[in-house]
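Database export, one record per block. Field names are fixed; values are copied verbatim from the stored entry.
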Amino acid sequence: MDNEFGMQATLRRGCGSEEIYTSLAARARELADACADPADRLAPLCDALWSELAPRGLSWIGFYLVAPPSEADARTADPGVATEMILAARRDKPACSPIGLQGVCGQGFLEERIRLVEDVGLLGAGYIACDPRDRSEIVVPIYRNGAPWGVLDADSHELACFGEADVRGLSAVLRSAGLLDRAPEVRADRLHDQQASL
């Protein structure tokens, strides 16, 4: 497709590079060694990811953790079953919290899959926006003591900002931080065209 100037725009399909993610994984290992509690790793890890990826198209990044069921939830739902997540760490602006489990973050958590969404518009009514300018998103489940604990959520105002390099790179960073102990499958919502308007 052509943009407003009649030029074709190529989708980038990749926020970070192998070099960036290798460096971030080394920092994540240092955090894991320095912080015995995984919860203490979330904010500094957000800071490191933001520092490297914001100049490359990242508009927001954060960790959502499963919220313990409330007394009201316990009366209306299965005891011990999560119904929402709360924001635990984020960069660089406020975001929705708590959130239910029906959006991309909830799907990534419940399915224990990486969600790669090249265009959030593809999700229709299934997309829940904290920032209406967001165009693409990647969600990676995280674990604590082998159990699903929450997700890492990253957004961009660019179409297809995230790609396979980000799937591999973010997974490696989270493994190094002790937050990912498996290789989740990827569920991707991809643009079919190699071109898109700016």
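Remark 1: The helical segments are 18-34, 42-53, 71-76, 104-111, 164-176.
Remark 2: The chain has a mean pLDDT of 86.
End of record.
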